[in-house]
Amino acid sequence: MDQYLAIIIQWAGNFAPTQFALCSGQILPISQNTALFSLLGTNYGGNGTSNFGLPDLRGRIPVGQGQGTGLSPYVVGEQTGSESVSLLSSNLPLHSHNVNVYAGVGNQSTPSNSYLAEGPKSGTGPSAKSPNIYYNGAAPNTTLNPLSISTNVGGGGLPMSILQPTITVSYIIALAGIFPPRN
Fold first, then answer.
1. Is the pTM of this model over 0.70?
2. I want to staple 6 with a disulfide (CB 3.0 to 4.6 A). Which of 39, 47, 75, 82 is the partner?
3. How far is Cα 64 from Cα 132, in angstroms, rounded to an integer?
4. How is domain 1-62+168-183 classified at the CATH fold level?
5. Do 26 and 33 touch, CB atoms closer than 8 A?
């Protein structure tokens, strides 16, 4: 096969064929791979004087270099991204909620399909069996002034996966081949 030197290929095998290496971040000596080093440099590691690194595509997906319209810029050799993320309240969009109430005495003790209303005028307190503080009838006729309330924090704070569906293959890089001409 006449392939270009440094070409990366997806490969269904779990080994690298002759003249290829798995893209596993190996460090190679420059003295034995001068042509390959001239193409890769130290973009993927190494000290640049006696050795250099191959790309490490284990658990990673390649992305094209440069910056597409409306996208972030990417530089050859850059590693970025994460398999999971923890959402914080600062990640959520700003939002508010109005509270609508019925400005009259409530007529039921359960909140199902009803609005907040005034409690009963008598029989309130700890001894009351089920005060009617909800109103099921006319639409709410009052909106409360903005106020600040707090709620218990929900969730467990554990990171969630953002990994796209995947199937694992090997990536291999040509260690030998035709030196690619420039346009």
1. no
2. 39
3. 64
4. 3.90.1340
5. no
Cα separation, 142 vs 101, whole angstroms: 5
- Coil, strand or helix at 37: helix
Q: What beta strand segments (E) does 15-167 contain?
A: 20-22, 27-29, 51-53, 84-85, 100-105, 115-118, 134-135, 142-143, 160-161
The DSSP H or E segment spanning 53 is strand 51-53
What is the C-alpha to C-alpha distance for residues 26 and 50, in angstroms, rounded to an integer?
14
Run of H or E including 38: helix 34-40
User: Largest Cα–Cα distance in the chain?
Assistant: 94
pLDDT in tens, 44-84: 999 999 999 999 999 999 999 999 999 999 999 999 999 99
User: What distances in angstroms separate CA 135 from CA 60, 112, 114, 129, one per listed residue?
Assistant: 57, 10, 5, 17
Identity of the residue numbered 85: V
The helix (H) or strand (E) run that includes residue 39 is helix 34-40
State how far the Cα of 62 lies from the Cα of 76, in Å rounded to an integer.
10
Beta-carbon contacts of residue 99 (< 8 Å; ≥ 6 apart)? 116, 143, 144
